[in-house]
Structures are given as structure tokens and as C-alpha cells.
Amino acid sequence: MNHSNHVVSTAITAESIADSSVVASEAVAQYALGLGDDALVLAHQLGEWIANAPELEEDVALGNIGLDLLGHARSLLTYAGTAWDKSEDDLAYFRGEAEYRSRQLFEQPNGDFATTIARQLIASVYFVALYRALSLSADTTLAAIAAKAVKEVDYHVDHSAQWLERLGLGTDYSHERMQQGLDAMWPFVDELFRADPFAADLEGVAVDPEPLRAAFDAKVPRLIVDAGLTVPTVSPAQGGGRLGRHSESLGPMLAEMQVLARAHPGANW
Amino acid sequence: MTSPGDSGGRETWPLWEVFIRSSRGLSHVHAGSLHAPDETMAVRNARDLYTRRAEGVSIWVVRASDITSSDPDAKGEFFESPQGKEYRHATYYKESEAVPHL
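Above: the input entities. Below: the C-alpha cells describing the complete assembly.
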């Protein structure tokens, strides 16, 4: 094919990691697996909006965000897999619910459009703080993945913030639905900023999520108030996603995501 | 004359025409159209629809209903009058030997 591709990309990709001789240590692989699962689960959820969003243009916008996240997941899972001689597909499609390390926010059902926007805003602001810090990692592969991701998630924040404002300040009905979306997602904020059990022994390599909370608290409540909405005051959910504890929605989501690869192992298309 | 983008009220979001400038020094060129609730979201949507393969460095959007166009049926009198008026082209004129550096 004759692509008029005038941009020669030097950014890191899942393919370039797989083709390189880089091998993650056991500890780094365990850490990358959790981050990869976060991105993968959210990417799949956003994919379910395709052909269901309020307008075609939003199908594309949410699909783009999902594809960015899928890119992060592919790089992180590919890198994790180098430690165990497993491919990104082995890790994505052939692990069960209890083996998934994703934090519980990401598996929360799409709900209505406002709920998805609430989930995306929380997730994206967290990702910006995470990847900014991770881009300084002593592990050069993690640092390169994060440096590429941070530009993308910056835009995701913008997309969610634009919609938060429009739904919050739109009609009484859109305001009510947006508030309900925030209320439904807010219990899962806390877990994002709890210590990552797989980051504990990786000082200088992994990011401790706890200090990232300050950046989140400085940004999200202000956006919510500026959109005429109320910052929810709900008790945090129990969490435990990194240890394989999940809410009821992850199992069915994984079944849907994994069925084809499991029915036709090695299938290619 | 109906405006471009007039769908008889079936659409809830207005239509926007998108213009992309592919690099510094070039003009914005019409890339296509899209729906968006307002101009800010129109630029966002244009970014997602038309610049994913590094096509542009600048985006303009304009509400399709704000564009006034020529009448597509008025081709003759509107566009054919230059025929036979070759003197409107620079190539009509001979280079003068007395004027250097042309």
C-alpha cells in the first residue's frame, strides 16, 4: 500500500518492544501487568460505545480514546510478557478474572454517556499524573511508554472536561444525569491512589500512586464545581483490583472480550 | 437557495465545515464536514476525524449554515464569462525585451 506517511514515527510501540531484545525483570513485569490491565479494561469498555454513542462523531471520539488506551495496554502487556515468554495476546485473552490486576474504576459499566464521561475524566486525570511521573522512571522502556502516553491522556482529559461542562451546565436533565454519573464513579477514585502492591520494591522505577492524589484533588473538584455540579461525598469502595478482587461487571466483560480468542486459539485476522 | 447543511431539522447538532492546514505556509483546505453541538466541540471532533494521521497543524471550523455559496444552477453567467478573455491571464502577454528580470 502506498501510504503518504510523511511522519516517520520513532515512538515506542508494542511491536518495537516485541522485536527488541529487552526483557523485563520479574518485579517490573508484575508492575507493568497491573498498569496494562487498567488500560486494557477501560479500552474495551470504550469500544463498546462504537455505534452506540449519542452521535457518530462521539463514536469516533470515544473510539479514539479507547484505541489510545489499547496502545498503552499493548505496550505494557508486551513488555510484561518478555519476562515470561508470553505475548500480549496470551496475557490479554488467557487470564481469568481473578488474575486481572485492573483497579475497579476501569471495569465499572459504561452506564449512560454522562457516566462514561465521569469515569473517563477521573481515569484520564489519574493517567496524566501517573504517566508524567512514570516518564521519569529509571526503567527506560516504562519511561518511553509513559512519555508517549502522556500526550494522549492529556487530550482525553480535555475531551471529558468539555463534556462535563456541557452536561453540567446544559439542561436540568443533563445536569441531573451528569451528577448521577459522578456519584456512581466517585467511590472508585480512592483505590487509584492507594499504594500499588507491585510497586513497593521498585523505587525509582515504579510510581507510588499516593502522592499523585494532590494533582487530582487540585484539578477535578474545580472542574466539577465550574460545571455547576457537586463534588460527591460518598464512602470509597473496598478496592483490591490489583489483588484480583473485582466488582461483578469484570467477569462478563472479559468473557465478551476473550470468547473469540479462546474459541479459535491463534486466530488471526 | 438552501444553505449547505440544512437537513430540514432532522439533526440535533448543527453541521460544520472543516478546513485543515497541512503545514506552515500553506492554505487551509476543505477536508469535510461533521456534526458538533458548538464550535469548541467541532474543533475537537475535527481533530479526531481529520488529523489522526498527522494531516494538519491547524484546524478551522465554520458552521455550514454561515456559508453563503454561489447558485449551482447559475453556472453559465457566473463562471463562463472569462471565456475569450485570455488577456486576463498573464500568459497572454509577450515578454518585453526592454524589461529585464521578468
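Note for the figure: The longest helix of chain B spans residues 39-50.
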